[in-house]
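User: Sequence for Lgc-29 below. Tokens please.
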Amino acid sequence: MLLLLLSILPLITADNDTFTPQELDMIEQIAPPEADFYFMNQKLFEDLMSNYKKELSPYYTNHHVNPLPSNWYHPPPMATQVVLTYARIVKMDQVEQVMRVIAEFRMIWHDYRLKWNESDYGGIKHMYVNRASVWTPEITVANSESATDAVPEHKQNAIFCTTTVCLRTTKNFPFDKQECPLCLVETFFNKNESKVYAGISPDINYNISGNGEWDLTSLKTFRKTLPDYHMVEFDLMCFLFTLKRKSNFYVMVIIIPTFIITALTITGIFGKRMSGDDFIGELSLGLTSLMTMTVMLGIVADSLPKTDHLPVLSVFLTIDVSLMAISVLLVIIHPRILYPQMKKIKSRVFKPKEDEEENGKCFFGLLPKSMKAYMTANLFFMLIFQAINFGSLYYILSFWNWSLLQLIGIVFPSASIVHRRSSSVMRSLLFSLIFFIPSSDGESTIHPGHPEWASDSEMENYRDAPMDDNQTKLLVEFHEHNGNLFQDLMRTYHKELSPYYTNYHRPLEHGQVHPPPMRTSATLTWFRIVKLDQVEQVMKIIAELRLIWTDHRLAWNPADYGGIQHIYFTRNSIWVPELTVGDSEMASDVAPDYKQNVLVKYTGHVLHYFNVVSHSVCPLVTSNFPFDRQECEFVLIEILFNKNESAIDVQFAERLNFARAGNGEWDILGGHINRTTVADYENVEFDLMRFVFSMKRKSNFYVMVIIVPTFIITTLSITGVFAKRLSGEDFIGELSLGLTSLMTLTVMLGIVADSLPKTNSLPVLSIFLTVEVTLTALSVLVVILHPRGCLARIRSAICKKHMGANLVFMLVFQAINLANLWYILSFWWME
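Assistant: Structure tokens for Lgc-29:
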């Protein structure tokens, strides 16, 4: 029935005479009310669209017209309500520090050009049109890498997918909570012209809004007021996503296995009495465990930005690595140094019998007699190290929703209360007193100067501000003048044609001068470094630019149009300077043309803000990696237009904050502008405008995760190889030890190799690792090649008495190892 009605409706509305009386009676019998509705609905749409300009904004801009007649007031700003009705977290990129989210908004605004008298159209009170038919508010996502509609413009849904900047703190990783704002902005529409209200639908289901790694725990809104270049205020409306990481994966896959490996290693090292003769087995066990720990460090390194703040997981792994290293060191040092000294103390204080003089009892005599039967020196060390290991585990699990503690709280309620009260204190004590590292319960990711929260009543009780008859009259007159102005401007305007004056070759009469080149001002008002790919040598940057130019074809006399001095319409209605990003792999606007407006003044000056994402080429000098400083360029170019026709002025905005433009791995120290003049194939000169950013790498991650563990492993390897006298016969144990250390160091080399381009200039970190590998390899080679007693012929009598050949080699190699560490850390200290 409906298909039949739709097929005959155009014939009904076009010409009723084409039907016979019998056919008309049949149509009226089928659906006379529906037929009348479709006719009226079509007539209403045609009447509304006859003089409607969707490119023209409905904002009242005549607030400057004063004085008004007595008891007359300007219309209030046009109110727009934006309600978040659906949200889904797609991805949280921890390295680039961006959040990708799918969001659905419900927008309500009042366009007085779309009003009608319902009695004139059969009582129709509302109608549906697609979004492309009407003007829509230019509400875009701020601080965003991309914001694209999930459906085409001709659909009525307002679902889009955006990748927005989310600066996060990784201090409590993987038990962290993050606050990521999704901010909406109407650029350069000031608060007298437009007012945006943000709200959150109560129907949002938080249980399905997260993803596999993150839970969405809450949503809030806040407003922040910003000034533009002429200090006119406009609002930034933000939805604050509070996210909690699902940490069970890290607990079960990294933390628990690491704790078990460390516990088994400590037990294996100290489980055998320290005889001072055979320690190669324990040393190999420790270094094998260290190699396993470097794999764990590599997993964490791939998941996090290289920030200065080490997360608690990295600290936990570093503590376990240190425990293993110290335990291995004690295996070597204790029997040879401490044991003879403790033996003397024991004989003086306790006077033990000769049958008690056994290896491994150096601390035994210092303990109470009741404990002599239960503890030896190795057990004493084991208990201390296992206690520290368990304390480290307890500390990191205190950030987790530990089910064991919850079980204890159910069985023993008082214990639960004690745990809740002492949890924070215990974390501080364990970290501050035992590990000598300052503790913190976390910090907010919201930047300083947090704005006030918007009130719930303001969101829920949104309504248009009431207007009296005089205000309505002013608004109707304004829309009439505004529409006439736009129509007159566009009547002979061709947006495909540039306004550049190109007749400089024409000879002039005496006294005449050619017009100056058309000037365009390009100001970098905001930017953010998203990522610096060191292998591809590409900088990914989000930048907001403000363009100001003069198009004399858009000038008018305000007196002819009710005093209107400026007007807003969409960017695709007029010509825009061909200012593109040069030396870039890819550059694209964040928002499409129909979502971008321009402000045009009666003088012909045009103001336009737009955001661009660029993958700009940035050649890196990696010789000082990871203590390097780089300079990367964001290049603007206007091709074809020579310097006689066009002039570009570029500058940084005065309110631009370089300190907050970096990311987790890079700090922005400052910037400057370079201008380069080049010539095309016809020797026509044009300029390249370069925004140059000075950046400094945050190097603490590399020091704590790569340099220090590598130094410890090399130190232990050299000590283990040379701690036993070189007999020239039994070197298999030392050889296995050295090869295990080399395997561990290759893991470190792999972490560094994945982060760097394969250039001819080796960075200092690669040189450091190469020296460490060489020292380990040479120490093993010396064990094999050094003949028995080769140093005995050249050593003095004093050296023969106090030092063996192994100690000579050990001191030489350790001195080189320490000098290598001092060299690379000198770059760190000079930062």
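The longest strand covers residues 78-93.
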